[in-house]
Amino acid sequence: MTELIVITFDNEADAEAAYAKALNLQKDLVVELAGLAIVKVDPSGKTHVETPHSGDLAAATGRGALFGALLGLLFFVPFLGLAVGGALGALFGHLDKSPINAEFRQSVQAAVTAGRSAVVVYASKIDEDRFTADMQAFGGTTVRTSISDEEEDRLTHDAAAA
């Protein structure tokens, strides 16, 4: 079971501090990150995404393609109502039947608007009590969902094909 957690903040400083804390929590074995990103939306509405520079997260877990696709779908694709290729269409079809459905995506997109920031955590293992307690220090609003191993395999296949 994998957890997809999006924590939204009113400012970049809190998001950056929470992002750094998530990296430290991985070192402390509180969370095993399959993906981590900070998303900043500037006042004009342009989205900027940063991920850890080491590349260790995606390489170690083999989930990099899926995490990248999820970031794209959560923050960039709301305008893609046009013709969608078969592989991307399959990914959308599976997403709508998974916990990362349209309702989840819309709640994330509504929370991460101009001037706001978010930390996106994709965790393969997590001590939820400790992680939650440590993240509460930064405030923010959390949207989360769990993805079963079977759903993740299906989505990973579709993300790699897309």
What does this structure look like?
This protein has 162 residues and is α+β, with helices and mostly antiparallel strands. It has one domain. It is 48% helix and 25% strand. It has 7 helices and 5 strands. It has helices at residues 12-27, 56-61, 64-75, 86-96, 102-111, 128-136, 149-161; strands at 2-9, 31-41, 47-50, 117-126, 141-147. The chain has a 5-stranded antiparallel sheet with strand order 3-2-4-1-5, sandwiched between helices. β2 (31-41) and β3 (47-50) form a beta hairpin. α4 (86-96) runs antiparallel to α7. The radius of gyration is 15 Å and the shape is globular. Mean pLDDT is 81; it is low at 58-62 and 77-84.
Write the element-wise H/E pattern from the N-terminal end onward: EHEEHHHHEHEH
Name the helicity range.
40-55%
Provide mean pLDDT, rounded: 81
Query: Mind summarizing the main beta sheet?
Result: 5 strands, antiparallel
Which ranges are low-confidence, i.e. pLDDT below 50, for 5 or more consecutive residues? Answer: 58-62, 77-84
Rg: 15 Å
**Number of DSSP strands?**
5
Q: Indicate how many domains the architecture comprises.
A: 1
Strand content: 15-25%
N-end to C-end Cα span:
23 Å
Q: What global shape is seen?
A: globular
Structural class: alpha+beta
Q: Please state how the strands of the largest beta sheet are arranged side by side.
A: 3-2-4-1-5
Q: What is the count of DSSP helices, taking H or I runs of 4+ residues?
A: 7
